[in-house]
Amino acid sequence: MSTDEPADGSFGQYGGQYVPEVLMPAIEELADAYRRYVLDNEDGFMDEFRERLADFGGRPIPLQRADRLSERYDTEVYLKREDLLHGGAHKLNNALGQVLLAKYMGKDRIIAETGAGQHGTATAMAAAYLDMPCEIYMGETDIARQRPNVFRMRINGAEVNPVTVGRGTLKEAISETMRDWATNVEDTHYVIGSIVGPHPFPSMVRDFQSVISEEAREQIQAKAGRLPDSVVACAGGGSNTMGAFHHFVSDEDVDLFAVEAGGSSLTVDEEEGVAPNSASLSTGNEGVLHGARTKLLQDGDGQIMESHSVSAGLDYSGVGPELAHLVDEGRVTPVNVDDDAALEAFHRLSQDEGIIPALETAHAFAFLEEHPERVGDLTIVNVSGRGDKDLETVIEETAKRDLDVAPDMSVFEQVGAGRLGSRGDRE
Amino acid sequence: MSLDAVFDSEEPAFVPYLAAGDPSYEASLEYVGALERGGADVIELGLPFSEPIAEGSTIQSAIVRALQAGMTPERYFEFVEEVDVDVPIVCMTYYNLIFQYGDSEAGPRKFVERAAEVGISGFVVVDLPAEEADPLREACDEFGLDLIFIVAPTTTDDRLDSMRERVSGYVYVQARTGVTGAREDVSDQTAETLERISDWDVPKAVGFGIKTGEHAERIVRAGADGVIVGSALVDIVAEGHERDEPVAETAEKLEAKARELKTGALRGVGAAVESE
């Protein structure tokens, strides 16, 4: 594992521990556990983690050559298939790591927040597997647009607590989970879902996810005989991004592209306090949210803006502090694509490669479509998750648009009108 | 009046909290005045932040109402200038608003400068632990403002040392684990926490879950120099707003509740004297 980074969890001017005092001892306890178990492998923690990730999770995950995409863009495209991880997304790497860590720490209750539901699902699965009670906080907007994952969490035995404040998305769910943690801090571990939050979460989640780039780096050398020219990953909070980038960061010749959700526009609606995108790396500025100093979507007063993306998993007003730092350093290039392009990419990948990607992942492929010349001769795209959870959203959103690559959606129209009004009402 | 002067008196201090601008700028001005009439010695005036992660539903809702009614950091400073009270006002908020004010390149200095201009006496910054507080502490020193830290029941001894080096004005003793919110009882954790910081040379004010005069009495009897009450007062504002009550009527209820709490706190001193 890593790292030679500062012990206080700072990444340049970003990071830190900005939390209510009542949580500080829990954060310090966690930082100590992170150092002992994750960094120093005390009691063989990391050995057990890797063994369980293999047996329960299905690692290692293939790195697959994408033949049609390679032909289309006249460049070698390889797919890191995190959608094949148990649960259908990269999220299990982190959830399993943290639930196992909570057991090593002697905690007896798990809480987590979720946006798209992938992290909640992964946490519920890991908690069921490791026999820990689990409660998930999820915004009501996201519950409406991610119903399959809500059911999956319930089926795995987790309680799902709807969050009704604000716009009812990930930002509000994180705040609500922090409140629960502040109340039940002594016996509860908060499994945060991305590389966000106070130290040690950004480093720890990154380390659990870095198995993605560790494998990909070995696999590409075995398959292509060299390192890639670029790695492309979508970025919301940034956990799959840093997971895919981490073992390439010191390879200066490998370009790293973090693809954000450009939503419907990069222009901010100051009046409504809404950024119709989730592009905090591309358009945000420095601030303090949910325990860390990082890049945020905020108004001139420092109030946090509501974000937007067609993809619930990217719909967050902040981003991990390490990613913000790597962008400032020029090591990671932030780019963004809009909702329309992501939907087109969703359909294209499904038709061309037989892979139905998560809408989050589709953003990475939309960047490839728009800028194939930027990725060099050999690129790895991280397929962060599969798209089953997004099908209702895709049916509804595709029906609103005239997309070149979409199938004939008329058969779905009645279904869409009947079932999916709630999200449409909000827009 | 400085915070020192308040706590120098023999009486326990009554420190009520309201969110500025809840449910409207004008009503809120009246409500803050009512607190002073009811016996407030210091007023903690919340500057609403969109992500109040340490607050329970009562104060969270107050913050939402205030934001919807247009409260901003600049309006807040105007509010403090306009409010007609003679007691010190402490600004209670979250760090991003302080950090962003004016120009984030300058850090917290511009916010503190403006706060000093309008007569604010100090700050409680809910998500700013002592370790991250040096830039704000320096700015407070420059402009002569106090920086109050919250000691929680979970706070470790090492962290107490770190806070003790940086705290001024008073220390906010969190009566129990959790988020803000009125409760039916006050915690036994309070006396234990007060004992741990008994040799600190700043006053100790206890908050979280204090709802009645009797609670206030018991908190003072446990050794507190002051009693902080938020949610029980915000509940009165919320009820008035929901019932569409005249502002004057809600203000009267607030004044009466404040008097009950202040009187309870005074009884706590009496009880302590009697028991000696």
UniProtKB/TrEMBL annotation, chain A:
InterPro entries: Trp_synth_b_CS, Trp_synth_beta, Trp_synth_beta/beta-like, TrpB-like_PALP, TrpB-like_PALP_sf. The modification N6-(pyridoxal phosphate)lysine is found at K91. Pathway: Amino-acid biosynthesis; L-tryptophan biosynthesis; L-tryptophan from chorismate: step 5/5. Its cofactor is pyridoxal 5'-phosphate. One of its GO terms (cellular component) is cytoplasm. Its EC number is 4.2.1.20. GO terms for molecular function: tryptophan synthase activity. Keywords: Amino-acid biosynthesis, Aromatic amino acid biosynthesis, Lyase, Pyridoxal phosphate, Tryptophan biosynthesis. It catalyses: (1S,2R)-1-C-(indol-3-yl)glycerol 3-phosphate + L-serine = D-glyceraldehyde 3-phosphate + L-tryptophan + H2O. Signal peptide: none annotated. Residues 57-379 form the Tryptophan synthase beta chain-like PALP domain. It comes from the Archaea. Pfam families: PALP. Belongs to the TrpB family. The beta subunit is responsible for the synthesis of L-tryptophan from indole and L-serine. NCBIfam families: trpB. Tetramer of two alpha and two beta chains. This is Tryptophan synthase beta chain. It comes from Halapricum desulfuricans. The lineage of its organism: Archaea, Methanobacteriati, Methanobacteriota, Stenosarchaea group, Halobacteria.
UniProtKB/TrEMBL annotation, chain B:
The active site is at E44 (proton acceptor), E55 (proton acceptor). CDD domains: Tryptophan_synthase_alpha (cd04724). Its EC number is 4.2.1.20. It is an enzyme of class 4 (lyase). GO terms for molecular function: tryptophan synthase activity. GO terms for cellular component: cytosol. It holds the Pfam family Trp_syntA. It comes from the Archaea. PROSITE patterns: TRP_SYNTHASE_ALPHA. It catalyses: (1S,2R)-1-C-(indol-3-yl)glycerol 3-phosphate + L-serine = D-glyceraldehyde 3-phosphate + L-tryptophan + H2O. Pathway: Amino-acid biosynthesis; L-tryptophan biosynthesis; L-tryptophan from chorismate: step 5/5. Keywords: Amino-acid biosynthesis, Aromatic amino acid biosynthesis, Lyase, Tryptophan biosynthesis. HAMAP family: Trp_synth_alpha. Belongs to the TrpA family. Tetramer of two alpha and two beta chains. The alpha subunit is responsible for the aldol cleavage of indoleglycerol phosphate to indole and glyceraldehyde 3-phosphate. This is Tryptophan synthase alpha chain. It comes from Halapricum desulfuricans. The gene is trpA.
